Amino acid sequence: MNGFTDDPRHAEDLHAWQVLRPLLDEGNYLPWSTGAMRPAGLALVCNEIVHRGSTRIAECGSGVSTVVLARLLRQRGGGATIVALEHDAQWAALVTDLLRRESLNDVARVVHAPLEDDPPWYARSALREMPEQVDLLIVDGPPAYEPGHGRRRAPALAAFGPLLPETATVILDDVNRPGERDVLTAWESETSWRFSVDEAAGVATGRRSTDI
User: Fold this and answer.
1) Which of 26, 30, 67, 76 lies closest to 49 in space, CA to CA?
2) What is the DSSP string of 156-204?
3) How far apart are CA 53 and CA 170, in angstroms?
4) With left for phi above 0 and alpha for psi between -120 and 50, is residue 28 left, alpha or beta?
5) How many CB atoms lie within 10 A of CB 185?
6) pLDDT tens digits for range 122-149
7) Burial environment of residue 110 by CB neighbours within 10 A (0 to 12, 13 to 18, 19 or more)
8) Among 38, 116, 131, 163, which one is most buried in terms of CB atoms within 10 A?
């Protein structure tokens, strides 16, 4: 029995690989870590950028997604940019070098933001590096897979709140995990944001509700 095709998430990722191929075949080798967004989730983000014309993108956590999205923004033109927060200085330097090698520096940059506070989240001072407004926020960090750290990403919505216009979109990765589901529940109970969950892609897409 082929276990790959038995799991609908695997089938979704296989399809996403084909969709993303033009962006993945371009440029240098990308180190796809275990913490990287799954191909299905990344394809969903790309669709969001194309369909809604997102031009001011912020990302919590950097990596393959940062480079792939930068390639997409360069293809589309129009002055769109992405800024990623990264707590790991060595990883931030690696992703920055990947962007430099492909001359993507004018499209994307990585801001080193050590974790602080409780629960640990990116240094608030790093938010000064963000654009005045963010129309697409991707929350794929900080790492939240260790026991006791499942709600690490909860501060993102409040921290970025002043930068998010009424038409902004927020995408949370890893929503198949209990911690991220708790985060979604808290966000919806405490704010006017409402999220739709794509189980196959493992992400949730949120927008402000006008009915509240």
Assistant:
1) 76
2) HHHHHGGG--TT-EEEEE-TTSHHHHHHHHHHHHHSSEEEEEETTTTEE
3) 14
4) beta
5) 11
6) 999 999 999 999 999 999 999 999 888 8
7) buried
8) 38
Residue type, position 84, single letter: A
Side chain identity at residue 14, one-letter code = L
Residues in the chain: 212
Sign, CA dihedral 12-18-22-24, equals positive
Residue type, 91: W
Distances from the Cα of 160 to the Cα of 10, 46, 102, 145, 182, angstroms: 32, 21, 29, 22, 19
The C-alpha atoms of residue 146 and residue 136 are separated, in whole angstroms, by: 27
The predicted pLDDT at position 13 comes to: 67
Type and span of the H or E element at 121: strand 121-122
First to last CA, the chain: 49
Maximum Cα interatomic distance, the chain, rounded to a whole number of Å: 52
CA contacts within 13 A on the Cβ side of 125: 7
Check: pTM over 0.85? Answer yes or no: yes
